[in-house]
């Protein structure tokens, strides 16, 4: 589903980020995602409508939720905002973007579901001389991606797993469209592409998956648009959100992140960087 209006449902605006693009950035989180990843750490971004969140630690079980929550345990996540409302917030930190080489990053959820909103927002940001970036799973019509591309300075591709059967099991959708869009983006982009790989034990952390990613880049990125690969180790920080949203957390960990496992991930980094000359690093935990 593509939401076609100049208003969008936003579930978070995070200022002073330093992990999602160069410099100091503001992250804009859109509600709505076409994937249903078992391990998703932002479940509040899955639906395109507001979500109700109940904080179990604050709830006093008074039964007055439908009228008023005196303890602040119940809240609505998601607010419909216009481009002008978002721009007012973004541009309040313009001096930090300018001094640090930072800017804005669109994420979610899946920002391409709000393509018209994103297009207008990116145009206005570019008009202000602000660096623009997006993080997307690329599960969208190519026309949408192509439309946004001229207004972006960095595209971060959120890739899950190369094997289609595993991808369908773990995310609910085939990766055929995603991989086709990656091929097109490799050739069409005039900006750096950052490949972000969530490393999920038992799903995509096997050596064969990383080897397939390397082979895919080497075959389909002759222009060298992929400037870096970032491995994002799994964590459980989002599990509590599922409880508050009354949702089931469906991922069962198949491995623990001990020192031996981290050593394995460092070996994967070396596989990309040393053996295949693809810049790779361990990023923030997912």
Q: Which properties best describe this structure?
A:
286 residues; alpha/beta; TIM Barrel; nine-stranded mixed beta sheet; 9 helices; globular
Poorly predicted segments: none
CATH topology: TIM Barrel
The CATH top-level class label: Alpha Beta
**Domain module count:** 1
> How large a portion of the residues is in β-strands, by DSSP E?
15-25%
Average pLDDT taken over every residue: 90
Shape: globular
CATH architectural designation: Alpha-Beta Barrel
Name the structural class: alpha/beta
Portion of residues within helices: 25-40%
The largest sheet, given as strand count, sense and whether it forms a barrel, is: 9 strands, mixed
Q: What's the total number of strands?
A: 11
User: Strand order across the biggest sheet?
Assistant: 5-1-2-6-7-8-9-10-11
Structural features, described:
By secondary structure, the protein is an alpha/beta fold. The chain has one domain (7-282): Aldolase class I (TIM Barrel, Alpha-Beta Barrel), CATH 3.20.20.70. The chain has helices at 83-91, 94-100, 115-127, 142-148, 164-171, 176-188, 207-220, 239-244, 259-276; strands at residues 7-17, 25-30, 51-54, 74-77, 79-82, 103-108, 131-136, 154-158, 193-199, 226-233, 280-282. Strands 5-1-2-6-7-8-9-10-11 form a nine-stranded mixed beta sheet. Strand 1 and strand 2 (25-30) form a beta hairpin. Helix 1 packs parallel to helix 3 (115-127). The protein is globular, with a radius of gyration of 19 Å. The mean pLDDT is 90.
């Amino acid at each position: 589903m593509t939401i076609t209006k100049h208003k969008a449902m936003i579930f978070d605006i995070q200022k002073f980020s330093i992990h999602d693009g160069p410099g100091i950035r503001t992250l804009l989180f859109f509600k709505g995602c076409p994937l249903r990843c078992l391990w998703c750490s932002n479940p509040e971004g899955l639906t395109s409508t507001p979500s109700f969140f109940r904080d179990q630690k604050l709830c006093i079980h008074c039964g007055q939720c439908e009228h008023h929550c005196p303890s602040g345990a119940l809240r609505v996540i998601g607010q419909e905002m216009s481009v002008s409302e978002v721009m007012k917030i973004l541009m309040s930190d313009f001096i930090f973007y300018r001094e640090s080489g930072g800017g804005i990053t669109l994420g979610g959820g899946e920002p391409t579901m709000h393509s018209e909103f994103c297009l207008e927002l990116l145009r206005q940001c570019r008009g202000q001389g602000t660096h623009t970036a997006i993080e997307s799973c690329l599960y969208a019509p190519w026309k949408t991606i192509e439309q946004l591309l001229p207004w972006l300075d960095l595209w971060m591709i959120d890739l899950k797993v190369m094997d289609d059967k595993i991808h369908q099991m773990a995310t609910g959708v085939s990766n055929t469209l995603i991989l086709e869009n990656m091929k097109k983006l490799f050739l069409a982009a005039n900006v750096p592409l950052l490949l972000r790989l969530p490393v999920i034990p038992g799903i995509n952390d096997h050596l064969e998956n990383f080897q397939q990613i390397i082979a895919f880049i080497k075959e389909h990125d002759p222009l060298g648009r992929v400037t870096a690969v970032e491995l994002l180790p799994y964590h459980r920080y989002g599990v509590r959100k599922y409880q508050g949203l009354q949702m089931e957390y469906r991922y069962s960990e198949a491995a623990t992140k001990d020192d031996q496992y981290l050593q394995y991930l460092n070996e994967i980094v070396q596989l990309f960087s040393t053996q295949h000359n693809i810049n790779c690093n361990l990023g923030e935990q997912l």
